[in-house]
Structures are given as C-alpha cells and as structure tokens.
C-alpha cells in the first residue's frame, strides 16, 4: 500500500464585487487551513484494516487527537471508513468493491472531508482504490452464430462482441485466443470506447458442398497473476452465393441531444442499402458493439434503424456514447457503422446541501461569531447552471459566511438564551443561476445547550404557614416551591433549611423539609403557650456547577387549641389544707363574700372564663358572678343558716370543646374567732413538723416586738415630759389582727375585672373586732373618713396602714394614752394567740396556716403603725 501525504492551504475564492470582501474570505479560508491527504489501498480489504495514520500525517499529537473531535463526512450515505480517535488511524468500515464503486474507470477515488475542532480545521481526504484481479472476463453470450456465404472473399472479417472484465488496468481483458482451424484466423482490435474486441478473418475460401458448418472457440484472457479467462462458442453456417452486402449511408453518425430528452424519443436513424434483390436485399439492423452503460438507455428498430431512448439520460453520469450498429441482409452479409451520441447539459439538478459539521447543542453562552456548522453545497450541472448562492431564511440570530470553494460557515450573529429559545430550525436555501433557477432548502435543527445562569426563583416573596398546637410529629406545615428555568441538573431544585436557632434551639429540632418537593414538616409537637410564632429561612439550590441558590422567609404561626383547663389562683388549690372564709352573721343581701380567681393559659375565646356554683350547702344563699367570679349573698344571712357553708365552684372556658376546673370554697358564718373550735369537724391533714415551726416563729416574733415597743415607750416618756392629750373620741379605727387574708385588699389580676377592698375595725374598750364590708371602689377612695391612709405595702400586696394626725401641744400625752389603749389591745391579742396555740396542740387541729400567719402579720402592722405615729410626733422632720 502506498501512502501519500499532501497538505496545501487553499485560498478562498475571490469575490468579483469588491477587494475587501475577498480579503475577508481569504482570511477565513486560511483559518480553516484546508489540506489534502491521499491514501492508496487495494479493494476488498477486511473491515478494521488500517488505511492510514491520520494523526501522524496531520502532525497532531496522538494523545490530543481525540480532544480535537475528529469526524469525517462522506458525500453519500455509505460510510466506507471510520476514525479510531484513540490512535488516530483511518480504518475500513465496510467492504469496498472497486468495480461496484467506479466500474472500469482507470482511476477510482473516494473523497471525503475531515473536520477537527479547537481550532476548526477542514482536510480533504482522497482514497485511491486499487484494483485486484477478482473477476473473470465474460462474453455477452455463451454462443455466437455467424452466417457466411460461400462466396465470401479471402480476408473477410467478422466482428465478435467483446468480452467484458469488471477489473481495470492489467486485470482487464488483455487479448483473445482462437481455437485451431484451417479456415479462420484471429485479429484483435482496440476501441477507445469499448476496449479490445476480436474479429475472425477468413483465410481460405469456403465450400458449402464440402462443409456447411464450422465451430470455433474464442477465449478472452486478462493480465492478472494468476491469469483468468472466459470463452464463447462461435457457430458458423455457410450459405449459398450472395454477391452484395449492405452499405450504410454514412460511416459515422453524430448527434447531440439534451439530457432531458423524453423516453421514446428518436435519437438518430441509421440507414443501409443492399443491391441484391429479394431476400438477399432485405436489411436488418442491430447493435454490434455497445458500452455497458448504454444498453439500458438506447434501443434500435431492426427494420427501420431508428435508435430511440428507453432510459433516462444524465449528462452528469455520461456526457457521450459511442455505439456500433450492424446492418445485415438476408444472406447473412453485414456491414457496421458508428453512432456517436453527445448529451448536452440542462439545468435539471437542484443544488445539493450537505452538513459537513454541526455543533449541537451549542452552549447558550457562546460568543457572537461562534461557528455552528460547516455547510457544503454542490450542483452537478455545469457552467452557470452549477453556480450556487446560499442564504438563510427568516433568522437574524445566525448568518452564513463563505469559506473555501462551495463551503459556508454558519455562525452566530446574536447572543443566545436557552431560556428564551431552546432550539432553532435554521432553514438554509441554495439557488443556482440556471434558467429557470433551481432551489433547494435544508433545515438544520440546532439545540441550545444550557448554562447554569439562572438561580431558582420562589413563587412567593415570603410564606406564612399556620399549624395547630399539639400537632403530631411529621405533620405537613406548608410547601414552598421554586422554579429554575435552566435545564436538567441546572434546573433541578433542592430545598434545605438555613441553619438557625429558635429560642436557642436549632431550627432542625422544630421543622424538616423534603429536599425534592419543598414540603415542610413538623419534627415535634408545638405548644402555643410556649411560643406562638417563629421564622425560618429556606434555601433553594440548583444542581448546576457551580450551584446557584436563593432564599425565602417562612413565618410559622402556631394556632391555639383549647388544651389548657382553667387554673384557679384563689382559693389556693392545696391538697393538704382547706381554705375557709369568715362571713359576718349580719351580712346583707348582695354583699361580696369572696372571689374566685382563675386564669387560662390559652388565648382568645379559649381563655374566656365563666363561673358557676355546681354544688352548695344552701343553693339559695350564695351566688357567683358569671364572668367576675365574685361570690355574693342572695339574701340576708339569718341565725337559722348553717354556720358551715360549702360551695363547689366550676370554672369553664369558652373553647370547643370547653374545659373546666372545680374548686371548693368553705365559708364560716361567724363574727369572731371564738367560734373557731367549731371547725374541728372539718378534716385537715396533719403536718406537725411545719405547725411547730410556725408556732415557734410566731411566739418569738410577738415577744420580740412587744419588748421593743415597751422599751420605745419608756424612752419617749423620759424624752418628753409634757402631758399628752388623747386625740381620739369614741371609737378608734384600727386594723383587725386576726381576720383571714381574703378580707384584705385583693388586686385584680388575670381575668379579674376590678379591685376590691375589705377593712376590719376595732373599737376602743372592746375585746372583739368588727368586720366592715366596703363595696368595690377605686384606689383613690379613702376609707374611714380619711383616718386611714393607703400606701403600697399592706400584706399580700395590700397597702400599709398609718395613723396621721395633726401635731398639737399635748402630743406626748395623747401618745401615752394611745399606747395605754394599744397595750390593752396587745394583751388581749397575746392571750388569744396562746389560747389558739394550746388548742391546736391539744386538739391536733390545724387551722389554715395562712390564717395564722395573717393574724401574726396584722399584729406586726399595728406595731409598725404606732411606731410610725410616735416617730413622726417626736421627729417631725422625718
């Protein structure tokens, strides 16, 4: 095999219109650097056989050859060769039969284009197919019949149809051999159109009476090694004397017809005459020597000699034909003539568009001027019929740039955007300059490749989600959705939560998100009372490289459910003690006795509370405010009423369904604590250790304050030697020291609607205390005619009581007189304390610890009031 490498850069064809355009086209053509590579190899090579080393012959590194994306484009559909991109070799793809491809042409070549990218290069590859002796010579017929009159002259020649050998060159028919006989010899003739053919020459006159038939064998052989041959039998019949043979009107007939001549049309009529009369003068016509490609095209009328068209003419395939016609009379004598038919070209071939290279998909970020495709146009017609113009129809984003001969480059004219248009149908039209011109369109479908140039975009700027408290873990909260107009993985959106904290706890402990669907789920159950809303950020990220992302805020609101029962603050729900309230016997109808205070941790209507007495000792004695919780008397309390009254109060919220809580309120109808022993029927749980501690603290505290007070009185007496005067006439209003705490001021809180004040008074000269109900009033109201002043220090959040009088000259005497009264009061209180203590110890009956402590605190507040009074009198500047 011979390998020839030829590289030459071909200049672009110069435009006749302007010099600058020719320079531009030349520059583009040089950039393609067209090169011709020639390989020669024999036909019938096996598939995979190496034809040539492309990478080496092109001077391209074999390691980088595949990255140049080499590809070949054949003019036809059959791909005879392929490129091994790994080693840069050109290999046989299908069996190549030279005779099938080129017939008997002396030179059989196969051309195709080789394209390489980065940079773009176009090379013309020419393959020369060498012939091998793989065919035998063959005659058109296995037997030839000749009629020769016995009067034929010595030296007469009779032509025999030539043998055909599809091979070419030395492997075609090289000569003939004739079997030995005494009458005939062989003469070999050569024709430019048909090659070598045989003629038998009469060497001795024939005598029909001696031998009327002769049989000869003609052998045709080629020049191959080993030599191949074919034979034909010639049957000769000797006829009686015939003096004249046919004579053609002209030895050569020449005619020119257009290639679009219709089938059945007469091309030419040959004519021959014979001087004999009768049957010997009747002339018939037939083809003697005829090219293979002419047999399906022409036919001859044996009687008239009309040569007609029976197949299609094609100037591009065969521009001319040379045919030999034989005229034979009835006696067998024949003459031959030559007919030459020239085919004239007409514009019967539309331009042919071939896509040599197409870069699809083309990335959307390709710069303007990027080459998309290399287009090859061809027109088989000649002269002006073969001149081609090429243009793009209705597409401004691409343009055609002429390059080398009959090649155009399709390049981008504008920037591309796949999201706006993902594919283009580019119609290229080629028109020749024939008359009329013929046009051929070709549509290129170009896909635009995606670049990750768009971040995901959420459908909303922010999201609000609502979920009821006490939800089940895994409950769907809401769904976020983001769209990415990019394609495939660049447009695949994945969702995730931005790491953050909610009340110091990672947001992942509260919510999770499905990365594919964007559905947000609750990880745990929420409690409206713990927190009511929180905010999380969701990020949507595509799968591009590098990835793009965007964020959105999701605000989660927890809606309240009625999951909390009302909680009673007062009376205190203590399982170890019962709260008992004292109600004076002289209480009138509508008087406020006590109040139930409750709250609900829920909100809205779930926290609207209503109160109801569900059970009572005397249903007609007490009533409770529906929304205030105030317990009032429905009628005046009488002596016949049971001293111990028990109420069961139900507090119910307004939820759906509603929740409720009950509490027991024990009321003791009595005017003083002397009736306290009657409470022994009420059961209390003993707590001896705590009771002992409270008693010891109470005794120590009272004794300490009492001694301090005596010392203070003695000190004042020695400091002021003036006679005091009593400022009080009648009853002096002082706070009671033994009333339970619920009769002190209770400030409104939670669901209470207002504040109430309850005051107790002690009259001078009396050992008992009186309880006075005061209706609901404002904080600025002064009880007891302004004698008592409210300050924010009274027990359980109540006000501190002070005695404020106007200073006069007998202030010391008044103070001492007051102290005498107060001392009488304190002695009676101490006797009462000891009495209560001993009764509790002996009877093991525990009264409310809060009641006991309250009595103790009341006593302390009395001490504080007196001390404040004395200090103010002695030290007015304080």
Automatic annotation (TrEMBL):
<keyword id="KW-0325">Glycoprotein</keyword>
<feature type="domain" description="Cadherin">
    <location>
        <begin position="459"/>
        <end position="568"/>
    </location>
</feature>
<feature type="domain" description="Cadherin">
    <location>
        <begin position="583"/>
        <end position="679"/>
    </location>
</feature>
<dbReference type="Pfam" id="PF08266">
    <property type="entry name" value="Cadherin_2"/>
</dbReference>
<dbReference type="GO" id="GO:0005886">
    <property type="term" value="C:plasma membrane"/>
</dbReference>
<feature type="transmembrane region" description="Helical">
    <location>
        <begin position="832"/>
        <end position="853"/>
    </location>
</feature>
<keyword id="KW-0106">Calcium</keyword>
<dbReference type="GO" id="GO:0007156">
    <property type="term" value="P:homophilic cell adhesion via plasma membrane adhesion molecules"/>
</dbReference>
<dbReference type="InterPro" id="IPR050174">
    <property type="entry name" value="Protocadherin/Cadherin-CA"/>
</dbReference>
<dbReference type="Pfam" id="PF00028">
    <property type="entry name" value="Cadherin"/>
</dbReference>
<protein>
    <recommendedName>
        <fullName>Cadherin domain-containing protein</fullName>
    </recommendedName>
</protein>
<keyword id="KW-0472">Membrane</keyword>
<feature type="domain" description="Cadherin">
    <location>
        <begin position="83"/>
        <end position="139"/>
    </location>
</feature>
<dbReference type="InterPro" id="IPR013164">
    <property type="entry name" value="Cadherin_N"/>
</dbReference>
<keyword id="KW-1133">Transmembrane helix</keyword>
<keyword id="KW-0130">Cell adhesion</keyword>
<dbReference type="GO" id="GO:0009653">
    <property type="term" value="P:anatomical structure morphogenesis"/>
</dbReference>
<dbReference type="InterPro" id="IPR015919">
    <property type="entry name" value="Cadherin-like_sf"/>
</dbReference>
<dbReference type="Pfam" id="PF16492">
    <property type="entry name" value="Cadherin_C_2"/>
</dbReference>
<comment type="function">
    <text>Potential calcium-dependent cell-adhesion protein. May be involved in the establishment and maintenance of specific neuronal connections in the brain.</text>
</comment>
<keyword id="KW-0732">Signal</keyword>
<keyword id="KW-0812">Transmembrane</keyword>
<feature type="domain" description="Cadherin">
    <location>
        <begin position="354"/>
        <end position="458"/>
    </location>
</feature>
<dbReference type="InterPro" id="IPR032455">
    <property type="entry name" value="Cadherin_C"/>
</dbReference>
<feature type="domain" description="Cadherin">
    <location>
        <begin position="249"/>
        <end position="353"/>
    </location>
</feature>
<dbReference type="InterPro" id="IPR002126">
    <property type="entry name" value="Cadherin-like_dom"/>
</dbReference>
<keyword id="KW-1003">Cell membrane</keyword>
<dbReference type="InterPro" id="IPR020894">
    <property type="entry name" value="Cadherin_CS"/>
</dbReference>
<dbReference type="GO" id="GO:0005509">
    <property type="term" value="F:calcium ion binding"/>
</dbReference>
<feature type="transmembrane region" description="Helical">
    <location>
        <begin position="694"/>
        <end position="716"/>
    </location>
</feature>
<keyword id="KW-0677">Repeat</keyword>
<feature type="domain" description="Cadherin">
    <location>
        <begin position="140"/>
        <end position="248"/>
    </location>
</feature>
């Amino acid at each position: 095999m011979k390998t020839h490498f030829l590289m030459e850069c071909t200049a672009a064809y110069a435009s006749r219109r302007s010099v600058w355009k020719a320079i531009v086209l030349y520059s583009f053509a040089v950039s393609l650097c067209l090169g011709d590579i020639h390989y020669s190899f024999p036909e019938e090579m096996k598939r995979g056989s190496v034809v040539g080393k492309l990478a080496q012959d092109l001077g391209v590194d074999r390691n980088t050859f595949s990255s140049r994306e080499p590809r070949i484009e054949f003019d036809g559909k059959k791909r005879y060769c392929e490129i091994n991109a790994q080693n840069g070799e050109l290999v046989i793809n299908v069996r190549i039969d030279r005779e099938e491809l080129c017939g008997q042409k002396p030179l059989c070549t196969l051309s195709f284009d080789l394209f390489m990218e980065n940079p773009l290069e176009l090379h013309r590859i020419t393959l020369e197919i060498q012939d091998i002796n793989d065919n035998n010579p063959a005659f058109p017929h296995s037997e030839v019949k000749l009629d020769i009159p016995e009067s034929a002259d010595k030296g007469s020649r009779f032509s025999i149809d030539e043998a055909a050998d599809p091979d070419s060159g030395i492997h075609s028919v090289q000569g003939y051999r004739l079997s030995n006989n005494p009458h005939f010899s062989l003469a070999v003739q050569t024709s430019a159109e048909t090659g070598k053919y045989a003629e038998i020459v009469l060497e001795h006159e024939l005598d029909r009476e001696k031998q009327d038939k002769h049989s000869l064998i003609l052998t045709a052989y080629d020049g191959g090694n080993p030599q191949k041959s074919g034979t034909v039998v010639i049957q000769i019949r000797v006829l009686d004397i015939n003096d004249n043979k046919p004579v053609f009107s002209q030895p050569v007939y020449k005619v020119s017809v257009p290639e679009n001549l219709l089938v059945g049309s007469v091309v030419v009529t040959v004519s021959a005459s014979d001087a004999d009369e009768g049957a010997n003068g009747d002339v018939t016509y037939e083809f003697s020597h005829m090219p293979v490609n002419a047999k399906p095209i022409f036919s001859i009328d044996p009687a008239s000699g009309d040569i007609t068209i029976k197949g299609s003419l094609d100037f591009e395939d065969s521009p001319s034909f040379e045919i030999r016609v034989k005229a034979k009379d009835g006696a067998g004598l024949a003459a031959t003539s030559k007919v030459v038919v020239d085919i004239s070209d007409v514009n019967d071939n539309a331009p042919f568009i071939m896509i040599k290279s197409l870069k699809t998909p083309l990335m959307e970020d390709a710069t303007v001027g990027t080459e998309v495709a290399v287009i090859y146009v061809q027109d088989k017609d000649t002269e002006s019929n073969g001149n081609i113009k090429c243009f793009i129809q209705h597409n401004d984003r691409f343009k055609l740039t002429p390059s080398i001969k009959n090649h155009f480059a399709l390049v981008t004219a504008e920037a591309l955007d796949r999201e706006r248009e993902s594919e283009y149908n580019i119609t290229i039209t080629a028109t020749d300059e024939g008359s009329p011109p013929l046009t051929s369109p070709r549509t290129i479908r170009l896909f635009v490749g995606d670049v990750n140039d768009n971040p995901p975009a959420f459908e909303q700027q922010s999201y609000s989600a609502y979920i009821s408290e006490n939800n089940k873990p895994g409950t769907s909260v809401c769904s976020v959705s983001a769209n990415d107009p990019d394609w495939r993985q660049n447009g695949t959106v994945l969702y995730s939560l931005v790491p953050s904290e909610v009340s110091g706890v990672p947001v992942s402990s509260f919510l999770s998100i499905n990365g594919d669907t964007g559905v947000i789920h609750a990880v745990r159950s929420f409690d409206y009372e713990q927190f009511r809303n929180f905010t999380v950020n969701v990020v949507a990220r595509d799968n591009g490289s590098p990835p793009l992302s965007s964020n959105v805020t999701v605000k989660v609101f927890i809606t309240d459910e009625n999951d909390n029962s009302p909680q009673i603050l007062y009376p205190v729900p203590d399982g170890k003690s019962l709260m008992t309230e004292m109600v004076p016997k002289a209480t009138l109808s509508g008087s406020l006795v006590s109040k139930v205070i409750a709250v609900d941790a829920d909100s809205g209507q779930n926290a609207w509370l209503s109160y109801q007495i569900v059970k009572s000792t005397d249903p007609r004695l007490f009533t409770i405010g529906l929304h205030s919780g105030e317990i009032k008397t429905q009628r005046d309390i009488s002596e016949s009423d049971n001293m111990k009254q028990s109420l069961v109060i139900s507090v119910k919220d307004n939820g759906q369904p509603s929740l409720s809580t009950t509490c027991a309120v024990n009321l003791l109808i009595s005017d003083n604590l002397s009736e306290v022993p009657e409470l022994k029927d009420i059961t209390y749980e003993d707590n001896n250790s705590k009771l002992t501690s409270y008693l010891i603290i109470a005794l120590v505290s009272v004794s300490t304050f009492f001694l301090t007070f005596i010392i203070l009185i003695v000190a004042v007496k020695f400091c002021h030697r003036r006679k005091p005067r009593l400022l009080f006439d009648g009853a002096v209003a002082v706070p009671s020291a033994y009333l339970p705490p619920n009769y002190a001021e209770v400030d409104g809180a939670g669901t209470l609607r207002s504040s109430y004040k309850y005051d107790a008074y002690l009259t001078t000269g009396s050992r008992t205390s009186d309880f006075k109900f005061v209706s609901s009033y404002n904080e600025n109201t002064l009880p007891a005619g302004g004698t008592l002043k409210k300050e924010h220090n009274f027990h359980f959040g109540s006000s501190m009581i002070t005695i404020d009088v106007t200073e006069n000259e007998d202030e010391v005497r008044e103070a001492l007189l007051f102290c005498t009264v107060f001392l009488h009061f304190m002695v009676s209180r101490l006797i009462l304390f000891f009495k209560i203590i001993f009764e509790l110890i002996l009877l093991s009956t525990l009264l409310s610890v809060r009641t006991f402590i309250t009595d103790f605190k009341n006593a302390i507040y009395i001490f504080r009031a007196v001390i404040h009074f004395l200090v103010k009198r002695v030290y007015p500047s304080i």
